[in-house]
Design brief:
This protein has about 750 residues and is an alpha+beta fold. It has two domains: about 230 residues, putative glycoside hydrolase family protein from bacillus halodurans (Beta-galactosidase, Chain A, domain 5); about 300 residues, Alpha/alpha barrel (Glycosyltransferase), CATH 1.50.10. Helix content is about 30%, strand content about 25%.
């Protein structure tokens, strides 16, 4: 049966099925085999943190590498082990603290290592050879229980190998890395050891109260095999950590190795298939899937938010949360990857610390405003006006960091469309974060509203009307008006938001493109894209207008061409902006440059210390090449390079609460499937030659070549198949060959 849709802009008859049966997306993914080609593989011994195997469960972490020629090390971390001091700047008051190392001391010098981080099972397996023999090792941080398990089967002369725990000096290592003076107040008491039956506990008291503890128990198995189970716990202000850690070890030992492994694998096997991505670039595809592993290893919805380290501790000058880029970028990939539960931890750090966010603004503004400064601990306390002893003497500071965090919050809502989250959490929090900027506005002689001198993150010179602040204020006011209309709230501040948008000074622009701020061009190399937020990720300036496009291209060329201070995340931003402009070749090139120049063998990233956000955010740059959903339009394969003749993805999540799947074969799109989870309307842009529609076709209008209006009800779906495409061609399956498999680790 056929029906002709009669509506303005409808160009062709749309086939309609007798019944709107949900179309199926045929999928052929052997997950164990697919993930195996992305495993990190070591054919020689990792000797540094940057080469090691990361294990984690969103709270506990361990990086496995050789300590020296006679020991394999599990460098331990737990995200919520922090200082609790007062009267100091935030990063000195509440820093992450080092915990120590579990060592497997060998009888002979290590001569080699053949190991694999099995991503599908989230487990390190392999063999260590020494001058005296060998040891087979299996290790994982349990997906849900706060325990690390290490199984060892020594052979020959290595039966004398032994486990040893070495506590770290419990000090804020920013003091060491930055060579600050260290006083007696910076030092915590020495740790001590307790025995609780078969469990040994190393207890680290804190001078500021509370403690953290490492507990472990070794269990002998058949022959000379051994299993060590270790847990880390923290308590403040009380001293319960030692008891909690010991109890966790006892529970794990009671389950036994196989019981632990079974429940551990159940989590990971359910986690990965939430979405699927495959591209014909083996190194990039592996990099992407390792970031999906690291996301769930770094946080969960009920666990601490991702700071610069995640659960993997290493000496660093950045032992906390940085609010002017790092935390925002860390969460970028969770939305499109259909892993919103991972992103809940970012929402929680805001929701649970509103009092601290309020204390961050000057007292006269606390009645209606919240904000956050540059850096601090997990309680969000970071006074917005504090710039540190080396900061601007004018009092200029970063004003808009929390509004940028709220953009992530908004993205979470846009991809899930939870109305309760919008009404009860997002809207009031965004309103209060924008209020701080509204309080800082002043009218100028030109009749426009202006912002005072401020810091544009990472740029050495301050300026009034920074593009960083103007972009975030514009986005905040526009978004509040849209949300107010959706909620029908009639908020009394709506007139103020409209007036601000009408009178706010334009973005400062010069011959090289967007400036840092009024009167301040980009004159030195600048790693941050703080002056380009209106382009990405805010998408206030999209490049759809030809003049806008020229300005964006000029700005990016000037910025990314300034070598010197550029870092890894600079190339993430350049890739994402290129994708927004539909420039797939540039998008892929920037990601290749990121991986080739800045990413370590284990895909970690450092700038004087670990900073986790850059590799994670690069996974979102991959999403931008495959699917974009801004402005109410779903764009399928908007920025794939010509070399990507084949590509496939399933259940990537789009703004408006859509799940989108698509397949590209021989350079053409042969399948697009869209499922509505929220009943929102959208436009679909997808070049599907001779598209044949199935599913809820009555809810689809064809507006032009490759352009469709979707009015799907909640739960409805529609599928477009290319004319003549076979069932095999439209199947979602891995597209790249095995060539170039397992590019990360050490060869």
């Amino acid at each position: 049966m056929r029906a002709t849709a009669i509506a303005c802009g409808v160009l062709a008859a749309v086939p309609v099925l007798a019944a709107a049966a949900p179309p199926e997306v045929s999928t052929d993914v052997d997950w164990a085999a697919f993930m195996a080609r992305h495993d990190l593989v070591w054919k020689r011994t990792p000797e540094r943190w940057e080469e090691g195997a990361p294990l984690g469960n969103g709270l506990l972490g361990a990086m496995v590498h050789a300590e020296d020629s006679r020991a394999l090390s599990w460098e331990l971390g737990r995200t919520d082990v922090v200082g609790h001091r007062t009267g100091l700047e935030p990063i000195l008051a509440h820093p992450r603290l080092p915990i120590g190392r579990l060592l497997l001391e060998t009888a002979g010098s290590i001569t080699g290592m053949d190991a694999r981080l099995d991503l599908w099972n989230a487990e390190l397996t392999g063999a260590v050879t020494t001058e005296r023999g060998s040891l087979r090792v299996r290790s994982f941080v349990h997906a849900e229980e706060p325990v690390l398990a290490v199984e060892v089967e020594p052979e020959d002369g290595e039966r004398e190998a032994r486990f040893v725990f070495r506590p770290a000096l419990a000090i804020n290592e920013r003091l060491l890395a930055r060579r600050f003076p260290i006083t007696e107040d910076d030092l915590n008491p020495a740790p001590f050891v307790e025995e609780r039956g078969p469990v040994t506990i190393s207890v680290q008291p804190r001078k500021s109260g509370g403690e953290y503890a490492v507990a472990w128990q070794e269990v002998r198995g058949p022959a000379s095999s051994r299993v060590l189970v270790l847990s880390i716990a923290d308590s403040h202000p009380g001293s319960e950590a030692r008891r909690s850690a010991a109890a966790a070890v006892a529970r794990a030992v009671g389950q036994g190795s196989e019981g632990l492994r079974k429940s551990h694998r159940a989590f990971w096997h359910a986690y990965y298939p939430a979405s699927f991505v495959s591209v014909p670039a083996p190194r990039l595809e592996s990099f992407y899937w390792i970031q999906m592993y690291k996301l769930a290893a770094a946080t969960r919805g009920d666990r601490p938010a991702i700071d610069t380290l995640g659960p993997w501790y290493h000496r660093t000058p950045w032992p906390g949360v940085w609010w002017n880029l790092n935390i925002q970028l860390s969460y970028w990939p969770v939305y499109a990857a259909n892993r919103l539960s991972i992103g809940e931890s970012l929402l929680r750090i805001v929701d649970e610390n509103v009092d601290s966010l309020r204390r961050n603004v000057p007292e006269p503004l606390r009645a209606d405003s919240i904000a956050v400064g540059r850096m601090g601990g997990p309680n969000t306390w970071s006074p917005v006006e504090y710039t540190g002893p080396a900061g601007p003497k004018t009092g200029a500071h970063e004003m808009s960091n929390l509004v940028w965090v709220m953009h992530n919050y908004w993205l979470h809502w846009r991809h899930g469309m939870d109305e309760a989250l919008l009404r009860d959490r997002l809207f009031p929090l965004l309103k209060q974060s924008v209020n701080y900027l509204l309080h800082r506005l002043e009218p100028g002689d030109d009749g426009r509203l202006h912002l005072p001198e401020a810091v544009s993150p990472e740029y050495p010179e301050t300026a009034p009307d920074t593009n960083y602040d103007l972009s975030l204020l514009r986005w905040g006011c526009r978004t509040l008006l849209a949300l107010d209309e959706r909620l029908g709230a009639g908020d009394p501040l709506a007139p103020r938001w409209r007036e601000t948008l009408a009178r706010l000074t334009p973005y400062p622009v010069g011959p090289t493109g967007y400036l840092i701020g009024r009167g301040q061009p980009l004159e030195v190399s600048h790693r941050h894209f703080s002056h380009l937020l209106m382009v990405y990720p805010l998408r206030l300036v999209t490049g759809e207008d030809p003049e806008e496009r020229v300005l964006i291209e000029r700005s990016v060329a000037h910025w990314i061409g300034f070598e010197g201070a550029l870092q890894g995340y600079s190339f993430v931003g350049a890739s994402a902006i290129s994708s927004q402009l539909g420039k797939g070749e540039d998008a892929a090139r920037y990601l290749d440059e990121l991986i080739g120049r800045f990413v370590h063998p284990n895909t970690m990233y450092t700038e004087a210390g670990p900073v986790i956000e850059t590799p994670l955010s690069a996974a979102q740059a991959v999403h931008e090449m495959l699917l974009q959903s801004w402005g109410g339009t779903l764009r399928v394969f908007p920025a794939v390079p010509a070399a990507w003749q084949e590509a496939a993805f399933r259940d990537l999540r789009a703004e408006g609460g859509f799940l989108v799947s698509a397949v590209r074969r021989r350079g053409r799109t042969v399948l697009v499937n869209v499922v509505s989870l929220a009943g929102e309307q959208a436009t679909l842009r997808a070049e599907v030659a001779g598209a044949k529609l199935s599913g809820a076709t009555r809810s689809v209008e064809r507006l032009g070549d490759g352009v469709w209006r979707l009015k799907l009800k909640k739960g409805e779906s529609v599928q477009l198949r290319a004319a003549g495409a076979s069932a095999r061609e439209t199947r979602v399956a891995p597209v790249s060959t095995g060539a170039g498999a397992n590019p990360f680790g050490l060869r």
